[in-house]
Specification:
The chain is 60% helix and 12% strand. By secondary structure, it is α+β, with helices and mostly antiparallel strands. It has a five-stranded mixed sheet with strand order 2-4-5-7-6, with helices on one face. The chain has a two-stranded antiparallel sheet with strand order 1-3. Helix 2 runs parallel beside helix 3, helix 4 runs parallel beside helix 9 and helix 5 packs across helix 7.
């Protein structure tokens, strides 16, 4: 029934176009005869044809506008809204009142779908946040007792077990901390506590703090930092650089290299981390910023799959963006674009 109504509406608009075209053609002929532009005895044969073509062109244009407004504009809005949902925005909605009942029903069903997805996302987020919060206290106790055991005189095998327990506790503590931070950032809309600081000095401190990691693997660091005074949240941006450099170190083999670059232009501030590591496939690049996704399926490299999700969320709050370029066995480059220091939000 709905398909029949859509078909009937479209046919009606075409019929109206032809009727108005003929009426306009007759009007042109009448005006031509009335003002002696045409002879009523021997009319010029191409004048009616020209009038018909002109009227058809005019009404075809208005018909295209009408069809575009009634059919194509709502479809275009739906495409943009679906893109927002695919990117994780479940707060988008479409107008449910429309002259065409089918378009209104389509938008109504879309809004209902988004509301259900938003409810599911909130339920999942609240559950993970609450569980992670409850984990913190017992994990702190286990980590404390494991530290005491590892520092006590024990047999070699017992010492190894205590160290493994301590390492596992620290991994779980890092995981719960990242989950709580990501949940907090997901509910924020603006960046709090902005201050002016030296961005190049912050990157140097980040590199120095991770010196034991890259010196252990004998990595060559090529550092090119321009002096930049930036205004933003210092602690959040420090989390970005720490996660990106940590990833570069993790996935770069021994005696590899990492190139860190910082520069500014009129349009943005650019920070890039390029490594000579294992690289990623196109499918891995598309999913690398998803929560809990790890490209290393063997889990041979420690991690919880939240680092890059945190990076993208922080940069979104800062008004920046991140891009990845990679090829298997040829390394990976993460490029961060921040708003210029004079106009960042």
């Amino acid at each position: 029934m709905r398909k029949f109504r859509l078909w009937l509406t479209f046919c009606f608009m075409i019929a109206v176009t032809f009727v108005l075209g003929f009426l306009l053609t007759g009007l042109f002929i009448f005006l031509g005869i009335r003002f002696h532009l045409l002879s009523s005895v021997a009319p010029i044969p191409w004048i009616p044809l020209l009038g018909l073509m002109g009227s058809a062109a005019i009404f075809s244009f208005f018909l295209a506008l009408l069809v575009s407004h009634c059919f194509f504009a709502p479809v275009h809005q739906l495409i943009l809204a679906l893109k927002e949902v695919a990117e994780g925005n479940f707060h988008v909605s479409l107008p449910e009142k429309n002259q065409l009942e089918d378009i209104g029903k389509m938008n109504q069903n879309f809004n209902r779908m988004v509301q259900e997805l938003n409810s599911t996302e909130l339920l999942q987020s609240d559950f993970i946040q609450n569980v992670s919060h409850e984990f913190k206290t017992p994990l702190a106790a286990i980590e404390g007792y494991a530290s005491l055991l590892s520092s006590s005189p024990l047999a070699d095998d017992q010492q190894e077990y205590a160290c493994r327990i301590l390492d596992s506790c620290r991994q779980l503590t890092s995981l719960t901390g990242n989950i709580l931070l990501l949940s907090k950032l997901d509910n924020q809309k603006i960046v709090p506590e902005k201050q002016r600081f030296s961005l190049d000095e912050q990157l140097r401190q980040c590199i120095l703090s991770m010196e034991p990691l890259w010196t252990r693997k004998n990595l060559l660091l090529d550092i090119e930092l321009q002096e930049i005074q930036y205004e933003g949240n210092e602690s959040l941006l420090a989390q970005v650089w720490t996660n990106l450099l940590s990833n570069a170190v993790k996935f770069t083999p021994d005696s590899g290299s990492i190139h860190i670059r910082l520069c500014a232009s009129m349009d943005n501030v650019l920070v890039s981390f390029a490594d000579s590591g294992i690289g990623m496939t196109q499918d891995e690049q598309r999913r690398i910023f998803d929560k809990f996704y790890q490209a290393d399926h063997s889990r041979s490299v420690q991690g919880n799959g939240l680092g890059l999700a945190l990076v993208r969320r922080i940069l979104c709050l800062c008004g920046g963006k991140i891009q990845v370029s990679s090829q298997p066995e040829k390394g990976t480059t993460f490029t961060v674009y921040l708003p210029p220091a004079s106009s960042n939000p």
